[in-house]
Structure formats: structure tokens, C-alpha cells
Design brief:
By secondary structure, the chain is of the alpha+beta class. Helix content is about 30%, strand content about 25%. It has one domain. Strands 1, 2, 3, 4 and 7 form a 5-stranded antiparallel beta sheet that branches. The chain has a two-stranded antiparallel ribbon with strand order 5-6. Strand 5 (about 120-125) and strand 6 form a beta hairpin. The relative contact order is 0.16.
């Protein structure tokens, strides 16, 4: 697969849709081979400070603390995850849906895994509250993408042909 990210992309000033132009050199569906396609996902970059995030948490044991029964430590996620998050200063959010483009998941999942590995960061799937460290994340994510794409049937594949870069 050949891939190009939008030529004007920069981590310094990006917010919103991030397009990718791509071509499958090999694919189980012949109609996708050698066709220039466009996909992408929403990408948002925000500042992150663990101390600020934990200060806004509601203590679930507030009433127990009030009556002096229990001292509670407050974690953003857990002691282990917070130990990694304390060194993180950016939060990158990836939003995607495969309902209008069968390849959005491919780009969002793999891009987020690559960035996680390159920065030795954390990957969080909030729908299921799953946290992954950078170890072998790209390989695991690629397998996840391949499993998903193997469930696709030809008549349900949705895609956009690349015409030109916009913006």
C-alpha cells in the first residue's frame, strides 16, 4: 500500500479532518487495486497535565472520607497508568467511523498506534476503557485492522476516490 498524508499537515496547528491518499498494490478485492483513494479521520491535539486532570475528578468515596472511615488516593486511571501519564503533556484524540468509509478505522487505529510507539505514550480506547502501552502496539493494531477488514464483503465496502488535495 502506498500512502500520502495531506501535504499541509503539521502537529503544530492541526485540528479536524486529516486526509490520506492511498493506493492498494495488493488487495483481496481486485476493484480496489491501483485505484487512488481518499480516507482519513478527525484528529485533535490538546494540552494535558495529569495534576490538572486529577484535580477535577469527583471522589467516589467522598462520604466515607467525611465520616473518617477511609483515606482515598485519587487516580486519573490507576497507579500504573498515572505513572506513565505524569510524563505526558499532549492528548491526541482520533475520531472515526467506518459507516461511510471502510478504511477510516485502518488509518485512525494505525496512526494512533504509530504515534503511541514513537512517543512511548499510552493508547486509550475509551468506549471500553482499555489502555495499551507502546510495546508491540503497531503489530497488534495491524492485526486488529486486518481482522476487521476481513469481515468486509464487497457490496458493503464504502470508499472515496481521490480527486485532489483540498485545504
Amino acid at each position: 500500500m502506498d500512502v500520502e498524508i495531506h501535504p499541509n499537515f503539521s502537529f503544530n496547528n492541526h485540528s479536524g479532518f486529516l486526509p490520506f491518499k492511498f493506493t492498494f498494490n495488493e488487495h483481496r478485492f481486485n476493484f480496489l487495486k491501483n485505484k487512488q483513494l481518499l480516507s482519513g479521520f478527525e484528529l485533535y491535539i490538546n494540552d494535558f497535565e495529569l495534576t490538572k486532570e486529577t484535580s477535577t475528578l469527583i471522589n467516589p468515596n467522598f462520604f466515607q472520607k467525611l465520616i473518617g472511615k477511609r483515606k482515598d488516593n485519587r487516580y486519573f486511571e490507576s497507579k500504573q497508568i498515572d505513572a506513565i501519564l505524569k510524563n505526558c503533556h499532549k492528548q491526541i484524540t482520533f475520531n472515526f467511523s467506518s459507516s461511510t468509509d471502510s478504511f477510516e478505522a485502518r488509518f485512525a487505529i494505525l496512526t494512533s498506534a504509530i504515534i503511541t510507539e514513537l512517543t512511548d505514550g499510552l493508547y486509550n480506547y475509551p468506549a471500553d476503557n482499555i489502555w495499551y502501552t507502546a510495546n508491540d502496539l503497531v503489530e497488534k493494531s495491524y492485526e486488529e485492522v486486518r481482522e476487521f477488514e476481513n469481515t468486509l464483503i464487497e457490496e458493503n465496502i464504502t470508499f472515496h476516490e481521490f480527486k485532489e488535495w483540498v485545504g
